[in-house]
Amino acid sequence: MNREPRAGASGELHAASQAQPNIALIKYWGKRDAALNLPVVGSISITLESLWTRTDVRFVPGQKQDRITLNGRGEEAESRRITACLDLLRQRAGVDYGARVASRNNFPTAAGLASSASGFAALVHAGAQALGLALSLAEQSVLARRCSGSAARSIFGGYVEWAHGQLADGTDSVARPLLGADAWPLRVAVAITSTAAKQVGSTEGMRRTAQTSPYQSAWIDTQEADLSRAREAILARDFEALAQVSEYSCLKMHALALAAQPGLLYWNGATVECMHRVRALRQQGVPVFFTVDAGPQLKAVCLPSAIEQVKAALRDVPGVLDVLDSGLGEGARNIAAGVVEA
């Protein structure tokens, strides 16, 4: 059953939401159905606190086209995906209004920091609220997945598992919370080594890997064991066990991509030096491990007591432009109108 749409004085249907990017510890790479964004393997992630996307959505009666801005500028690169996402919501609500979408990130966009995850989670959440769609979080997760795979996880906060599912229609490929952010409050230091958009996006990278990498079958065959190890480590708050399986999953994903034709190299020199620095810290007894998604930014996950030491070590690496600091955060939620452009 739908709620009443959030109509403004002009008849616009309006809502604003915030969502955070998530960092996969057990990686998602590869699709069993590209049209529905169904993953070939399951994944486990943590939702960040300090990084965010804020999105304002207004459905305007009589408007034919969607008008989209990102960080105050017209958005063309993602406009088709955003309109396709809005279409899913419009179909559910039975309206054909064009939308005005204003979105803002407080971190580099399309640079390996999961901006599409937070972006589409915020878009689905705000769009559903504006149209009065009474969608459960699980239903929002499924819709967000249709728009950007990893966005399924950013609907939730804390530790999240996204099932690859078995059904052809994808209704069982949904994320679910494993553990709340406050239940095991780890910290994440994000070493920014480039602010440029990556040359090969994740969708193309996954397609190329599936078609050409000789390691694809091994990646799929070993994923369930990794998920089980990570799930047990999270529920037991076993940092060392989580560190081992997370770094293993990270390096295995990048090995898979490196073996594609042509090979996918998402790292730069500073990324590799940061890996060495994190491993050196752990050998010294510092509770920290690294993970890297499809981009050059390294994420160092640590116990709260180690965060200052970890940040200082990463800042000392040549080529590191900045180090962001974040705890674990909430899932998608409502925010006040007007906050997006502030």
Describe the structure in your own words:
This is diphosphomevalonate decarboxylase. The longest helix is centred in the middle third of the chain and has 21 residues, at 216-236. β7 (67-70) and β8 (73-74) form a beta hairpin. The chain has helices at 79-93, 115-130, 137-147, 151-154, 202-212, 216-236, 239-258, 269-283, 307-315; strands at residues 13-19, 22-26, 31-33, 38-39, 43-47, 53-60, 67-70, 73-74, 98-105, 159-162, 175-179, 187-192, 288-292, 298-302, 322-326, 333-334. 36% of the residues lie in helices and 22% in strands.
Structure summarized in a few sentences:
The chain is an alpha+beta fold and 342 residues long. It has helices at residues 79-93, 115-130, 137-147, 151-154, 202-212, 216-236, 239-258, 269-283, 307-315, and strands at 13-19, 22-26, 31-33, 38-39, 43-47, 53-60, 67-70, 73-74, 98-105, 159-162, 175-179, 187-192, 288-292, 298-302, 322-326, 333-334.
Shape estimate: globular
Q: Segments where pLDDT lies below 50 for 5+ residues? A: none
Question: Helix and strand string, N-terminal first?
Answer: EEEEEEEEHEHHHEEEHHHHEEHEE
Mean pLDDT over all positions: 93
How many distinct helices?
9
Strand content: 15-25%
**Spatial order of the strands forming the largest sheet:** 8-7-9-6-1-16
Name the CATH architecture of the largest domain: 2-Layer Sandwich
Pfam families: MDD_C (PF18376), MVD-like_N (PF22700)
GO molecular function: diphosphomevalonate decarboxylase activity
EC number: 4.1.1.33
Family: Belongs to the diphosphomevalonate decarboxylase family.
